[in-house]
Design a protein that fits this description.
The protein is mainly β. The protein has no helices and 11 strands. The chain is globular and about 40 Å long. The N and C termini lie far apart (37 Å).
Length: 115
């Protein structure tokens, strides 16, 4: 099983990034997918979730209206479009796959928002 995140980097406040998470080794279309983030010294927090069929996206209040989660089951990939980025969004972003009691994590990708 592998979840490989990409697309992180350094961006100025107000800028945009698109994160991708490529999955392999499990039936991607059967799993709900989420993005989490963890800043230094803080607990990991849920950012956004999308169901296995691509419906019912949910977002943390702190990112509503700025971030969009989507998935392409044919490409076995989940995305996080991040707009109007703020310094407070600086974190390591992790991809998560979940189905019942099974869950998998990626290794994370760093997003730094700074001028």
């Amino acid at each position: 099983v592998q979840l490989v995140e990409s697309g992180g980097g350094l961006v100025q406040p107000g800028g945009s990034l698109r994160l991708s998470c490529a999955a392999s080794g499990f039936i991607f279309s059967s799993y709900d997918m989420s993005w989490f983030r963890q800043a230094p010294g803080k607990e990991r927090e849920l950012v956004a979730t999308i169901t296995s069929a691509g419906g019912s996206p949910n977002y943390a209040d702190s990112v509503k209206g700025r971030f969009t989660i989507s998935r392409d089951n044919a490409r076995r990939t989940v995305y996080l479009q991040m707009n109007s980025l703020k310094p407070a969004d600086t974190s390591v972003y992790y991809c998560n796959a979940k189905r019942r009691s099974l869950g998998y994590w990626g290794q994370g990708t760093q997003v730094t928002v700074s001028s």
